[in-house]
């Protein structure tokens, strides 16, 4: 009987390890066995709530493995621990790197929420381009310094400054020579893929990734739960479909082109979750861009009777009045939302505030429901 129990226990353990190795959005099983090292124990997969573009495995000694949907892995080791052969697609760093080069501007909000902005030493943006106070103030103090754009980093500054992690957006995939150079210099690189999450709340869940990198996973869980609460509260108060308002989200470029968002974009989905119906239907494709440029005639026909206009100021620059908007395209004077004064503009910080997605969703809801609540990230054009 004792022998049978032992065989059964060994079989269950084997099955558990097989399942751990086979799961993961990036296909851990396809890329080989998950790495183990002395004192690590077997890695245990954590369950995501809604995110689809990352998987986290935790080790007994506090280490973790982060695997993204691209198949790249980031092995985060406790201080003083080393790992053996981990495979070509695994980057190894020590827990809580504190001389980070932030070349993915959307990620700064995660570090800000975790109160870890002090771990960012190098920035791909100048101080005036940051709308996150802690980042801008750190650069003004000199605690964070400019180290070149993502496509052309200042390698000498990064190397001499002891950069211990480069966080990049997927834009770096268009400049493979950057990855090659960073690898040559021995600077670890992690590519953030939060922008590929199909649900806006999934973007927020990436706070868990950076909480594991920074060594505070419990805080990451707490911050995610706070954002999820906004979504839960809204879904519990869905309005009748007959009361939904049509909406258009766009901006006009300096060249006069009208640019809106694809149907699968997170902004479009937030509009829908908040009670609005986007007047445009542009399915996503293999192009990583979430923007669509449309002809004025097509825009006029589809959007002239929209109940609500939301003008995107994050790219085209701020405007404050309806006259400024109409000056960009005189056809807008005939739009229903313009005539009725139901035109809103976004705050410039919108794209840098992933960890305020719940609050932004609530702002959208206030616009579509006519709530008296004063939005924080939207403002009405007078």
**Could you state the CATH homologous superfamily of one domain?**
Nitrogenase molybdenum iron protein domain
Judged by helices, strands and strand pairing, the structural class is alpha/beta
Number of strands: 17
Query: Which parts are unreliable, with pLDDT below 50 for 5 consecutive residues or more?
Result: 1-31
Average pLDDT:
87
> What is the overall number of helices?
14
Work out the radius of gyration: 23 Å
Helix/strand layout:
Layout: H1 2-22, E1 44-45, E2 54-58, E3 64-68, E4 73-77, E5 90-94, E6 100-103, H2 108-113, E7 120-123, H3 133-141, E8 145-146, H4 155-160, E9 165-168, H5 176-185, E10 189-191, H6 200-204, H7 207-214, H8 217-235, E11 245-252, E12 258-261, H9 266-273, E13 276-278, E14 291-294, H10 296-303, E15 308-311, H11 313-316, H12 322-328, H13 336-339, E16 343-346, H14 357-369, E17 378-380
Parallel strand pairs: 4-5, 6-7, 6-9, 7-8, 9-10, 11-13, 11-15, 15-16
Antiparallel strand pairs: 1-2, 2-3, 3-4, 11-12, 12-14, 16-17
Structural key phrases:
382 residues; alpha/beta; Rossmann fold; 7-stranded mixed sheet; 5-stranded mixed sheet; elongated
């Amino acid at each position: 009987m004792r022998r049978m129990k032992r065989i059964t226990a060994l079989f269950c353990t084997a099955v558990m390890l097989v399942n751990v190795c086979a799961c993961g959005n990036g296909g851990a099983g396809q890329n080989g066995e998950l790495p183990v090292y002395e004192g690590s124990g077997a890695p245990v997969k954590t369950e995501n709530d809604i995110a689809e573009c990352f998987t986290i495995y935790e080790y007994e000694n506090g280490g973790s493995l982060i695997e993204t949907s691209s198949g790249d892995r980031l092995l985060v080791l406790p201080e003083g621990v080393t790992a053996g052969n981990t495979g070509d697609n695994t980057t190894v760093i020590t827990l809580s790197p504190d001389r980070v080069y932030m070349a993915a501007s959307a990620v700064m909000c995660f570090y800000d929420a975790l109160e870890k902005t002090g771990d960012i030493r190098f920035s791909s943006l100048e101080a005036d381009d940051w709308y996150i106070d802690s980042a801008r103030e750190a650069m003004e103090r000199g605690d964070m310094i400019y180290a070149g754009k993502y496509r052309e980093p200042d390698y000498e500054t990064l190397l001499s400054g002891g950069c211990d992690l480069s966080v990049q957006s997927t834009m770096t995939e268009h400049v493979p020579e950057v990855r090659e150079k960073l690898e040559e210099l021995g600077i670890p690189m992690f590519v953030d893929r939060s922008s590929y999450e199909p649900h806006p709340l999934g973007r927020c869940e990436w706070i868990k990734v950076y909480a594991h990198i920074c060594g505070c996973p419990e805080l990451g869980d707490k911050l995610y739960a706070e954002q999820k609460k906004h979504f839960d509260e809204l879904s519990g108060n869905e309005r009748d479909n007959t009361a939904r308002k049509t909406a258009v989200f766009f901006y006009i470029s300096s060249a006069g082109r009208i640019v809106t968002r694809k149907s699968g974009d997170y902004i479009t989905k937030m509009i829908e979750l908040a009670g609005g119906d986007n007047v445009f239907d542009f399915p996503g494709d293999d192009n990583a861009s979430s923007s669509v440029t449309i002809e004025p005639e097509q825009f006029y026909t589809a959007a002239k009777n929209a109940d609500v206009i939301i003008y995107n100021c994050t790219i085209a620059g701020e405007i404050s009045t309806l006259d400024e908007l109409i000056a960009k395209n005189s056809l807008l004077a005939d739009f229903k939302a313009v005539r009725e004064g139901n035109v809103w503009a976004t705050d410039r910080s919108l794209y840098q505030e992933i960890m305020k997605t719940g609050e932004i969703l609530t702002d959208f809801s206030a616009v579509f429901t006519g709530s008296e609540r004063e939005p924080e990230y939207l403002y009405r054009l007078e």
